[in-house]
Structure formats: structure tokens, C-alpha cells
């Protein structure tokens, strides 16, 4: 797959993961420079009255350029967050027409979940994987209260645990993944969260639906976790930062660029790559 896209006739769809890809909590900033040299930050999420997620001011300008000043591009936030969690984020630039939440479980159109997509997702889950109740029962039996902080369900679609990483036994996540796989579920460890997600619930399926509806002929994507791997594989071109599950495992695929930047600096570089690729692909203006 070429890393230099050819001119396209339809829109360029830019599908990006959010947390630890474009936006960063204070714990994930990855700043290793004196305060005098650190980039200026813009808060894009407040929760319980406290700032939670940030982009750099440079990234804010790039987001606005990508979403508003690059004609022919369609920016689609693509996240594992629930709809409620997604709506807490206020990114610079115009509100996206499309957004994907719950790892593909909800396709938002102008902020509202599309009921036809919900029906398709529900049908696939019922036909192709074990029920959520079975997964939750197994987690309740095997998770140790000594390291388990929270046990949550997202949108009645998948489960996740919040854990104390320093106390999590070696091999527990691997054992969970081995148990879940034959039941049609997969496991991803991201920071303090262990996600258990049904195989049919994918970001790539929802992105393909957006491409179908909009006539997009080129898809660009970025993400940092194993839950983003299917999204990156489905894209024409993709980027992963120098941190996260994909970087830690050395994951790669055709058309994917592994960036050396990590932390919030990677968010800036991903946006630069999106803009460059879109500019090269769209007809001369």
C-alpha cells in the first residue's frame, strides 16, 4: 500500500481515536522537558469541575485547520468512550457531523445516535458472540477485590474494569483473553482499564458505514491501542504514536506509519500527517 495517496474523487474521511491519540490526560502528557520549554495546553474536557483532557495549542490550531480549513475532508472522532463521556469533550473547530462511540456501537449523526446502526449492531452481537451477562459473571468470579477498583458496563455493549496496575497479577489479562477468545470477545489493557469487547463491535465497521453514506474514497486513521488495530487495518493510510499497546507490542500493518513521537507531542504530529495526506489527495484548489 502506497504511503503517498493519489488524488481522490470523493471526500477524505479522517477517523481518529481520541484518548492518548489526539487528547491526553495530565498523566499521559509525556512531557520530559523543562517547564519553560513545555507546550501551552488547552483543556478540552472538564469532569466534576476538574480539567481532565488536553491538547496543545498547536494541536488545537491543527484540528481547526483539518476540520474547517481543508475542504473535502470529513473529521470523524472514533472512540471507545460512551456517548456521555464523548459529549464531555469539546474539541476546537466545528462540531463533527459524524462521530463513533462505544467502539463502534453508536454512530452519532449531528450528535444523535442513529437507530438503524444500533439495530445492525444489536443483531450482530446476538448472532456472533456470547452474551454480555456471561462475560460479566466470569469477571465477577475471577477479579480480585484487592486490585479491582471499579467494574463497569458501557452502553450495555461491553465491560471494563478499572484496576490498580501495580497489584494486577502477571498473566491475569492473558488468561482472561484466552477465556474470552472462543466466546467471540477480545481483551485490551489500557492504562488502568481492562476492556472486554465483543469481536463484532469494531470501529472499522462504523467507519465503513460513514464512508458508504458520504461517498468517501480515502480513509485516514490513527490510534494507539489494540482496539484501534482493526480501524488502522481498514484505513488506506494510518498512524500510531510511539506509546500505547500497539507500540509496546511492535504492531504494524501495510500502510501504517509508526511515529517516533509519544505523549501529547504525538497528537500534534498525527494531525500534521492527516493534513498533509489530505492535501496531497484532494484535487488542487
Topology of helices and strands:
Layout: E1 12-16, E2 24-25, E3 41-47, E4 50-56, H1 57-68, E5 73-77, H2 83-87, E6 98-101, E7 106-109, E8 112-113, H3 115-128, H4 132-142, E9 148-154, E10 158-163, H5 172-180, E11 185-190, E12 193-198, H6 203-214, E13 218-222, H7 229-234, E14 237-240, H8 244-249, E15 256-258, H9 264-281
Parallel strand pairs: 1-5, 1-13, 13-14, 14-15
Antiparallel strand pairs: 2-4, 3-4, 6-7, 7-8, 9-10, 10-12, 11-12
Helix pairs in contact: 1-9
Can you walk me through this structure?
The protein has 285 residues and is of the alpha/beta class. It has two domains: 12-122 and 201-281, 3-Layer(aba) Sandwich (Rossmann fold), CATH 3.40.50; 130-198, Hypothetical Protein Ta0175, Chain: A, domain 2 (Alpha-Beta Complex). Helix content is 33%, strand content 26%. It has helices at 57-68, 83-87, 115-128, 132-142, 172-180, 203-214, 229-234, 244-249, 264-281, and strands at residues 12-16, 24-25, 41-47, 50-56, 73-77, 98-101, 106-109, 112-113, 148-154, 158-163, 185-190, 193-198, 218-222, 237-240, 256-258. A five-stranded parallel β-sheet has the order 5-1-13-14-15, with helices on both faces. A four-stranded antiparallel β-sheet has the order 9-10-12-11, with helices on one face. A three-stranded antiparallel β-sheet has the order 2-4-3. α1 (57-68) runs parallel beside α9. The longest helix is centred in the last third of the chain and has 18 residues, at 264-281. The protein is globular, with a radius of gyration of 19 Å. The mean pLDDT is 93.
Amino acid at each position: 500500500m502506497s504511503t503517498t495517496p493519489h488524488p481522490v474523487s470523493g471526500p477524505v474521511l479522517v477517523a481518529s481515536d481520541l484518548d492518548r491519540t489526539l487528547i491526553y490526560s495530565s498523566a499521559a502528557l509525556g512531557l520530559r522537558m523543562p517547564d519553560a520549554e513545555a507546550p501551552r495546553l488547552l483543556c478540552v474536557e472538564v469532569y466534576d469541575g476538574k480539567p481532565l483532557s488536553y491538547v496543545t495549542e498547536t494541536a488545537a490550531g491543527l484540528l481547526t485547520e483539518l476540520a474547517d480549513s481543508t475542504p473535502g475532508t470529513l473529521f470523524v472522532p472514533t472512540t471507545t468512550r460512551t456517548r456521555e463521556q464523548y459529549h464531555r469533550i469539546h474539541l476546537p473547530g466545528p462540531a463533527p457531523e459524524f462521530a463513533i462511540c462505544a467502539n463502534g456501537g453508536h454512530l452519532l449523526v449531528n450528535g444523535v445516535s442513529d437507530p438503524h446502526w444500533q439495530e445492525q449492531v444489536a443483531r450482530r452481537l446476538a448472532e456472533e458472540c456470547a452474551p454480555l451477562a456471561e462475560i460479566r459473571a466470569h469477571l465477577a468470579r475471577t477479579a480480585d477485590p484487592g486490585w479491582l477498583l471499579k467494574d463497569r458496563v458501557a452502553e450495555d455493549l461491553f465491560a471494563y474494569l478499572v484496576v490498580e496496575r501495580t497489584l494486577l497479577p502477571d498473566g491475569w489479562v492473558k488468561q482472561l483473553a484466552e477465556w474470552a477468545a472462543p466466546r467471540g470477545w477480545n481483551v485490551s489493557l489500557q492504562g488502568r482499564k481492562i476492556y472486554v469487547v465483543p469481536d463484532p463491535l469494531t470501529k472499522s465497521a462504523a467507519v465503513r458505514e460513514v464512508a458508504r453514506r458520504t461517498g468517501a474514497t480515502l480513509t485516514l486513521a490513527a490510534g494507539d491501542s489494540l482496539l484501534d488495530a482493526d480501524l488502522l487495518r481498514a484505513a488506506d493510510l494510518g498512524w500510531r504514536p510511539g506509546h500505547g499497546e500497539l507500540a509496546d507490542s511492535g504492531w504494524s500493518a501495510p500502510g501504517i506509519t509508526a511515529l517516533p513521537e509519544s505523549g501529547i507531542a504525538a497528537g500534534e504530529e498525527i494531525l500534521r500527517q492527516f493534513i498533509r495526506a489530505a492535501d496531497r489527495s484532494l484535487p488542487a484548489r
